[in-house]
């Protein structure tokens, strides 16, 4: 989809990657962007900044607590009342706190599901007759394709976002609704993720965050998430999953479950001791896409970055 003249909503747009994504969408030609976040000084500043830079009324703010289901109805109804349509939704709300995991599950899963389901009503192809469909980008995290031992509940909420986006983005839904749904899985994206204060977000502080094992020299920038969002708006097929690692964007092809039923895999006799194969070694560097492929059994290729060569392995 060409972003020109489209209307976008960014949830969680007050700062960081949400704010950058709103700006990048405006740069790419979006006619209006609706910022949604808690009412806080940052979100008023964010709206003002974008209007100053890109023109008054280019950005509007709908502030509130988006745990409240009514806020989503408000968000879509008000956006459509003002701008007649919504074409793009970037779901960037985040709660990173296993220590209060019920709120975390509610924020990361329920809000993503709720807002995506509403797009089937508010952004479907019958409503958006003039456009070529619409797009939802749900934000997960690269670790949720693998594991995150220090933050198991957070990891599971983000894995849920991947499963949900792949399923609701399936052609079965897309053909009916015209709404493309994709998942973006960034790696570590800002310095705060490394601070020791992060320990308070764990279910058990004694587990430790194992940060030294992450082996990330420098977190990627918020603006690379923003550029990835525009790329997905333009090109991502519905139901696709994308990894953004070390400023490089990859298309992730997750193996079909039937591949387990291939020669070379051990059939496990039920009620007998399992036939175990050694677990593959963990990758050493998060920037090493080739070893990422080996461990995760994903097909990945670099879309953008230093090494443009396609690397695809089983
Ligand atoms: N920061 C990283 O290192 C990193 C890495 C990988 C993926 N991500 C993903 O990127 C996305 C954004 O992450 P971030 O670190 O920029 O987060 P952030 O905390 O900076 O932004 C999230 C925004 O959501 C808003 N928000 C949360 N709950 C809300 C609610 N109930 N109502 C209204 N607003 C609410 C917050 O106010 C905040 O502005 C998340 O989906 C996250 O999983 C981040
Ligand atoms: C605060 C922003 C939030 O949205 C995202 C934070 C992301 C990560 C921060 C940190 O807590 C993550 C820890 C993950 C650890 C995962 C595994 C390690 O134990 C070992 C990984 C080794 C490797 O495979 O690179």
CATH class of the largest domain: Alpha Beta
Number of strands: 9
State the low-pLDDT regions, or none.
Answer: 284-314
Alpha-carbon distance between the termini?
A: 31 Å
The main sheet comes to:
9 strands, mixed
Q: Could you give the order of the helices and strands?
A: EHEHEHEHEHHEHHEEHE
Q: Which homologous superfamily in CATH is the superfamily of the largest domain? A: NAD(P)-binding Rossmann-like Domain
Strand content: 5-15%
Helix percentage: 25-40%
Number of domains in the coordinates? 2
| Broad structural category | alpha/beta
Can you give a write-up of this model?
There is one protein chain. Helix 3 runs parallel beside helix 4 (101-122). Mean pLDDT is 85; it is low at 284-314. Strands 3-2-1-4-5-6-7-8-9 form a nine-stranded mixed sheet, sandwiched between helices. Strand 4 (88-91), helix 4 and strand 5 (134-139) form a beta-alpha-beta unit. It has 314 residues and is α/β, with parallel strands linked by helices. Helices cover 36% and strands 15% of the residues. The protein has nine helices and nine strands. It is globular, with a radius of gyration of 20 Å. The protein has two domains: 7-254, NAD(P)-binding Rossmann-like Domain (Rossmann fold, 3-Layer(aba) Sandwich); 260-304, no CATH class. Residues 94, 96, 141, 143, 148-151, 188, 192-193, 198, 209-210, 213-215, 282-283, 286 line the site of ligand LLFCTLWC.
């Amino acid at each position: 989809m060409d972003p020109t003249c489209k209307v976008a909503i960014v949830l969680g747009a007050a700062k960081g990657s949400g704010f950058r994504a709103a700006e990048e969408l405006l740069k790419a030609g979006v006619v209006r962007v609706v910022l949604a976040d808690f009412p806080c000084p940052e979100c008023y500043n964010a709206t003002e900044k974008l209007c100053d830079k890109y023109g008054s009324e280019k950005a509007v703010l709908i502030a509130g607590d988006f745990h409240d289901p009514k806020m989503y109805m408000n968000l879509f109804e008000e956006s459509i009342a003002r701008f007649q349509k919504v074409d793009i939704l970037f779901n960037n709300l985040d709660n990173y706190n296993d220590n209060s995991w019920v709120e975390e599950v509610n924020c990361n899963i329920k809000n993503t599901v709720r807002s995506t389901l509403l797009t089937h009503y508010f952004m479907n192809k019958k409503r958006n007759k003039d456009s070529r469909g619409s797009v939802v980008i749900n934000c997960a995290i690269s670790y949720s394709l693998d594991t995150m031992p220090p933050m198991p509940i957070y990891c599971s909420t983000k894995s849920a976002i991947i499963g949900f986006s792949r399923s609701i983005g399936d052609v079965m839904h897309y053909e009916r609704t015209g709404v493309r749904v994709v998942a973006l899985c960034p790696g570590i994206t800002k310095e705060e993720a490394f601070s020791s204060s992060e320990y308070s977000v764990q279910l058990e502080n004694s587990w430790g965050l194992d940060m030294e094992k992450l082996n990330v020299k420098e977190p990627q920038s918020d603006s690379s998430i923003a550029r990835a969002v525009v790329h997905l708006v333009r090109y991502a097929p519905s139901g696709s999953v994308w990894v953004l690692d070390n400023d490089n964007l990859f298309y992730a092809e997750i193996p079909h479950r039937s591949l387990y039923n291939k020669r070379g895999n051990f059939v496990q006799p039920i009620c007998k001791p399992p036939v175990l194969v050694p677990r593959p070694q963990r990758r050493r560097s998060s920037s090493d896409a080739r070893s990422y492929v080996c461990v995760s059994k994903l097909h990945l290729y670099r879309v953008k970055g230093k090494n443009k060569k396609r690397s695809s392995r089983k």
